[in-house]
Amino acid sequence: MSTFIVDSNFFIQSHRVTYPLDVATTFWEKVKKLFNEGKVISIDKVKDEIFNNDDELKRWIEINLANEHFKTTETQEVVNKYTEVVNWANSKSNHYVLNAINEFLQFEKADAWLIAYAIAINEGCQIVTQEKSEPNRKSKIKIPDVCNDFNIRYKNIIEMFRELGEKF
Question: Hey, which end of the chain has fewer CB within 10 Å, N or C?
C-alpha cells in the first residue's frame, strides 16, 4: 500500500475552506487516525509552513499529531534529491517565468522539498495536494506538474480517502 505524503494545502485548505475544525470533526478524527496508522505522513517543511500562523490549525496539530508524523528533510538522501529538483526547476526557465521558479525554490517553502522527499523514499508513495495540473501556466509551478516529470503519483484529498477505503 502507498504512503500518502500530504502537502500544506491538505491542512490549510481543509481547515479554512472545506472541513473547518469546528464543523467537520469526523474528518479531523479520520486524519489523526490515518497519521497514527502511518498511512499518511508529511514533512517538517509542511509543519513549518503551518506553524507560521498562530491559529486553530496550529493548535490542533500540536495536540493531535506527533513530531514523528512530520518526517525530516535533513537527510543526505533528501538533500541530494532536492538538488535534482532545483536543477529540474532551473532547466525549465524557457517555460516558467523567473518569479515562478524562485517562488517554487524558496528554501523555507515545502513544495520542492515535498517532491525531493517523495523521490528519496521511493516506496510507491503518493503526494496529496489540492493543486491541479496546469502545464501551460508560466507564472506558477504546480506540484502535479513536477510530479508528472518525476513520475510521482499524486491525488487530491477525496481520491486519497477513496483509495484507502475510508469514510468520515
Answer: N
